Amino acid sequence: MATIYEVSKRAGVSLATVSRVMNDSGRVSDKTRAKVLAAMDELNYRPNFIAQSLATNRSNCVGVLVPEVSGPVFAAMLEGIEAELREAGKFTIFATGHTDPDKELEGIRFLIGRRCDALILHIESLDDDFLLSQKNDSTPFVIINREVEGLKDRCFTLDNEHGGYLATRYLVDQGHRDIAYVSGPTGWRDAEDRFVGHKRALEEAGIRFDERLCYTGDYHEEGGSRALDALLSLDIPFTAVVCANDEMAAGAMASARSHDLVLPDDLSIVGFDNVPLARYLHPKLSTVNYPVADMGAMAARWVLKNVYNRRIDSVDHHFKPTLVERTSAVAPFGRSADVRARGDING
Amino acid sequence: MATIYEVSKRAGVSLATVSRVMNDSGRVSDKTRAKVLAAMDELNYRPNFIAQSLATNRSNCVGVLVPEVSGPVFAAMLEGIEAELREAGKFTIFATGHTDPDKELEGIRFLIGRRCDALILHIESLDDDFLLSQKNDSTPFVIINREVEGLKDRCFTLDNEHGGYLATRYLVDQGHRDIAYVSGPTGWRDAEDRFVGHKRALEEAGIRFDERLCYTGDYHEEGGSRALDALLSLDIPFTAVVCANDEMAAGAMASARSHDLVLPDDLSIVGFDNVPLARYLHPKLSTVNYPVADMGAMAARWVLKNVYNRRIDSVDHHFKPTLVERTSAVAPFGRSADVRARGDING
DNA sequence: CTGTTAGCGCATTCAA
DNA sequence: TTGAATGCGCTAACAG
Question: Is the four-CA dihedral B230, B236, B239, B242 of positive or negative sign?
Fold first, then answer.
């Protein structure tokens, strides 16, 4: 492959001039520019990114740490990030953390060792103190889905509390009063926030919160199934259930059917995340949208702006979930719904 | 960050010696090695991959081109590749081709420009001739999901014909004789192979192939829905349908229900790919497994062996699909199934 | 506007 | 077994 040296020789100019037209830095006369461009073209010259990186001390790579790639939310996040970065000529490399503190740490070290210019992190196990301790390290980073005190300008978060509120409020508006809840794992911030939102919606509607109707799940399908099995065995009547993510909602649906419930008439179900799967379920799952691809893209824009000094208008850090109405939730027992808030529930 | 120069100074040896202990190339006395190691440790030294790459003309990156990341099969493929590569200390960067020849080409150029040491390609639009023309180019590549004459040792393929055969054979074994087929897009090799397998199973069972019962889909949910609408409007009775991928099967299910069919009693459905979604559908989708993560990992091993000269025992190029039995296909009209082949259909 | 020069951090001859 | 010298391809002062 041709090098800058060969181009300069062919164009009859110096290395520096070739470099200048490549990066259009500094003034170059149109005539020499044309000569250089022609030489590049004839030689089919491609700049060597590696050499550029070494000379500028910039790898033009940004590292992304996700728990896993094959989960629907993280795949969407990755896609959002890659699209934004690639348009700017930057590269995305990723590593997986598998919700394990050691692996997350190793992944971060791996990415830093690779001389990433910046990191976009979706961590689940490492704690805030670790993040704070890295704050002044050489590699800048941003965080998706966690708000860390003292690092707020680097955090990109969803208002999970509001999302939890929306889900339950939606059921309340349809006339449900006995609403079960399947939460995410204990100790996960997003899970707890969603749960808090649920309770607020209940309280606002004057419904007494019944702890027995709450089950702690694992964010996986199996957890949703187990949850419904447990809830149903309680003999406490309920007409609806909100699941803290769509996968658990899918599991809950399967379990409900194995208990001979007819969906959605016997039981209304609302999920959270709005992953592609939600549309495929039967009935189609009403859920809360988690705009994770947008959030990934926004994190990428932060990097572009703050690390690569690109001119980016504005960067949003806080995202609002919205309710996506489909067919998995209806009025209880066929009663007509209280529709007072319909149409502006997301407002 | 400390450089090799600082390490050498601290250890009181030359640059070359430090380099030798890093790569353990060449002989170094235990005593000096210990000194160097100690110095590295004290300085918390990490080699600069960029500089190494420039010096060795190896980026230690392998590029992966996928149609998209957020689709379930490609996410799984990426995950399989990344795990294998990372264990070997190599990096994965990816680009998306979106089933568009221009974008695929641009993605490949992007990856090559990034000085990837090798490419793993899942292309859908570029043709064999293009691939052949790249054969002797500087960047070695392998191909997933396509067999190219003259490039066979670089191709990793699934026996799609056999998969199509398995799906239909499974229905035949259960007693179905009127079996519709929803294929992938015309011109896609995997789609056509799967279709050929379907016809072979029919022929083997002495069932006359009826072209009217075949619909050309698009591998998306909508295509599956449209397919079933069209098929049902024909007034030609059929008791089962095989869909050339799971997403179309999901669409078909939805459409069947909107026509008031009870699943699986009124209509048996079999899919293809075995994506995570298949388990969530109701009834749970019986399908043909496409071991795409394994195939990705195997492609990565080929790269490790042939590009990085790692000692890898063997590399398989051909993968066999297997049938995954769930609950979406049953004997027609409740008739008891012909189970003669049960238990060894995959054999 | 253009050319010269000196590194970026490391691997790798070649001598010693 | 070790060290000195050279170059990977490019950018970035500094001169001119």
Answer: negative
A165-196 pLDDT, tens digit each: 999 999 999 999 999 999 999 999 999 999 99
B88 touches chain A (CB under 8 A): no
Residue B44 near chain A (CB below 8 Å): no
Give residue-wise pLDDT tens across range B140-186: 999 999 999 999 999 999 999 999 999 999 999 999 999 999 999 99
Region(s) of chain B under CATH 3.40.50.2300? 61-158+292-320, 160-286
Average pLDDT over residues A199-208: 97
Query: What is the torsional sign of CA B251, B254, B260, B266?
Result: positive
| Residue B136, Cβ density class (10 Å: 0-12 exposed, 13-18 middle, ≥19 buried) | exposed
Q: Is the preceding omega at residue B283 within 30 degrees of 0, hence cis?
A: yes
Whole-prediction pTM? 0.86
Q: Are B299 and B81 in contact (CB under 8 A)?
A: yes
Question: What pLDDT, on a 0 to 100 scale, did the predictor assign at position A344?
Answer: 52
Low-confidence ranges of chain B (pLDDT < 50): 335-343, 347
CB of B23 nearer than 7 A to strand C: yes
B160-286 is classed CATH 3.30.390.30: no
Cβ-contact B66, B94 below 8 angstroms:
yes
CA distances from A227 to A6, A218, B175 (A): 68, 10, 38
Q: How far is B280 from chain A (nearest CA, A)?
A: 6
- Residue B234 Cβ under 7 A from any strand D atom: no
CATH 3.40.50.11540, domain A61-158+292-320, yes or no: no
